[in-house]
Amino acid sequence: PDVTSTTVSLDARESRKDSTGEVVRRIQLEFAFQFSANFLACSVKTDESNVSVSGTFILHPSDPFPNQQVVVWRVTNGIAYSLICDISENLSLAEYVLEVLIRVILDNISQEMTAPKILLEAEKITGILHVFLPSGTLMFMNHKIVRHLEKDVEAILSAK
Fold first, then answer.
1. Whole-angstrom Cα distance, residue 109 to residue 121?
2. Which residue in 1, 9, 22, 125 sits closest to 65, CA to CA?
3. Lowest model confidence (mean pLDDT) among 115-119, 129-133, 139-143
4. CA 129, chain centre distance (Å)
5. CA distance linking residue 101 with residue 89, whole number of Å
6. Which of 8, 61, 64, 135 would staple 22 via disulfide (CB 3.0–4.6 Å)?
7. Average confidence (pLDDT) over 22-29
8. Is a pLDDT exceeding 70 seen at residue 133?
């Protein structure tokens, strides 16, 4: 094997890992801020693992992507889900698709998933993403299309 190409691929992987880490840190900060603001606003004691909080934020160029991006995120049952979109993407559509993806993931895996357990289901999640985000493209979908795509997911997951 060529040592140069191996080094380049490792550098690219580390760069992607750093980019992902930056997005995760921003989501953690946004979640902590919104959770604490909501906690202060209500006098009822809430458990962080049962809260559903969502939001969006902008990643400026080189922060960590070369072009400006928008991150649409939601934390549900203590697990953060996110979509990184181009600035020109339809954010309402992205929020809707993320909501549908979370529901389909929870329906097809387990309602009681924790962060370490969800990593064991990466193949199933990848299958769901390929159906609902073909080639990473947001699709307009009504309830009939969602139902059709859910049947596709069931067929794919039952075949494995």
1. 7
2. 22
3. 115-119
4. 10
5. 17
6. 64
7. 82
8. yes
**And the tokens for 63?**
């922060």
* The token pair that represents 25 in the structure block: 């840190």
| Residues forming a β-bridge with 57 | 71
Query: What six digits make up the tokens of 41?
Result: 């606003």
What predicted TM-score, i.e. pTM, was given to this entire model?
A: 0.75
Query: Whole-angstrom Cα distance, residue 147 to residue 119?
Result: 26
Tokens of 109: 């895996």
Closest CA to 79 of 63, 98, 65, 95: 98
Q: In the beta sheet, which residues pair with residue 76? A: 79
Structure confidence by residue, pLDDT tens digits, 74-96: 988 888 899 999 999 999 999 99
The CA radius of gyration of the chain, in Å to the nearest whole number, is 18
Q: Which string of DSSP letters, residue by residue, matches 4-34? A: HHHHHHHHHHHHHHHHHHHHHHHHHHHHHHH
Encoding tokens for residue 18?
Answer: 């750093």
Q: In this predicted model, what pLDDT tens digit does every residue of 40-58 receive, in sequence order? A: 444 444 555 556 788 888 8
The residue count for the chain:
160
